[in-house]
Design a protein that fits this description.
By secondary structure, this protein is mostly helical. It has a single domain, classed as MetI-like (MetI-like fold, Orthogonal Bundle), CATH 1.10.3720.10. It is built from 13 helices and two strands, in the order H-H-H-H-H-H-H-H-H-H-H-H-E-E-H. The protein has a two-stranded antiparallel sheet. A hairpin with a 5-residue loop joins strand 1 and strand 2. The longest helix is centred in the C-terminal third of the chain and has 37 residues. Belongs to the binding-protein-dependent transport system permease family. It is a multi-pass membrane protein. It is found in: Cell membrane. Keywords: Cell membrane, Membrane, Transmembrane, Transmembrane helix, Transport.
Length: about 300
């Protein structure tokens, strides 16, 4: 008869207790800033300036969101952000995976030199002005594709995917070629399905980078409101709020019929609201990507 040895000694209990305590502390440290921002964004702005807002609003209000989202440009910029995130992630991950597969094949005699040239670009680049001039010569200024094409192959992503591909048994790829599959067919039907875990991870990196990016909008498309992104619009709102309000001054005031102040906003309330607005889409997408990531790891482990 087998007996459980999970708590056979006091050392095991202490170890488990420390692990649980450490994980709970890590969860609290990770979630508290976001929960605090949520509470501040849902609290009356002038009341928040008194401090003491931790995990729940003291005076609940939606006005901070109404103030931030009242501009019609926000909704169009949200569409542009979604498009650049979806298209940019798909194109970047696919192209990076193709390059990674190419330089991972031993029959490609120049793969080491090509990989070295890629790595050098991580340490040296042309600089901001040459990059701008290059994009201008490529007619990418005031174009949506300036968000996609310059970063279509990420060197860091290529290195990660290549390392994963090199761990795939050569016999699987050789079997596909013996069955008549070409390089592209092998890549699409064999390599990509086996690379689901690393592709999911890289997709998360690329998607977060695309969603949070605003400086390229400032450089290349600041004069075209139709190509503005959510992050850039929120940055402009924050700048305008800092320029037109002090911490205790009204930026936008509504009065009721008796003439008393109903709502006010402050830079702190706008910052908290902007943080929540910019974070929620990624937070909502992440659980689906995480589920896909776990599924891909399971498939990779079984087939390996």
């Amino acid at each position: 008869m087998k007996t459980s040895t999970r708590y056979a000694s006091p050392g095991d209990r202490i170890f488990d207790f420390c692990n649980i305590a450490l994980m709970l502390l890590l969860i609290a440290v990770t979630l508290y800033p976001f929960a605090n921002m949520m509470a501040v964004s849902l609290n009356d702005a002038m009341d928040s300036s008194r401090g003491g807002i931790f995990l729940k609003p003291r005076i609940f209000t939606w006005y901070n969101y109404k103030y931030t989202l009242r501009e019609a440009a926000i909704y169009h910029s949200l569409l542009i952000s979604v498009l650049r995130t979806v298209i940019g992630t798909i194109v970047t991950v696919f192209c990076s995976a193709m390059v990674a597969y190419t330089i991972s094949r031993p029959e490609y005699v120049l793969r080491k030199w090509v990989a070295l040239s890629f790595v050098l670009t991580m340490y040296f680049n042309g600089g901001l002005i040459p990059t701008y001039l290059l994009n201008k010569e490529l007619h990418l200024i005031n174009s949506f594709w300036v968000y996609i094409i310059p970063g279509i192959v990420g060197v860091f992503n290529v290195i990660i995917i290549r390392s994963f591909i090199e761990g795939i048994p050569d016999g699987i790829i050789e079997s596909a070629k013996m069955d008549g599959a070409g390089d592209f067919g092998t890549f699409m039907r064999i390599v990509l399905p086996l690379c689901l875990p690393v592709l999911a991870t890289v997709s998360l990196f690329v998607a977060v980078g695309q969603w949070n990016s605003w400086f390229d909008v400032f450089l290349y498309n600041s004069s075209n409101i139709n190509l503005s992104t959510l992050q850039y619009e929120l940055m402009k709102i924050l700048q305008s709020s800092n320029g037109s309000m002090t911490q205790k001054t009204v930026g936008d005031v509504l009065s009721n019929q008796t003439g008393h102040v109903m709502n006010q906003v402050t830079p702190a309330s706008i910052r908290a609201t902007m943080t929540i607005i910019a974070s929620l889409p990624i937070i909502m997408v992440y659980p689906f990507l995480q589920k896909y990531f776990v599924k891909g790891m399971t498939l990779g482990g079984v087939k390996g």
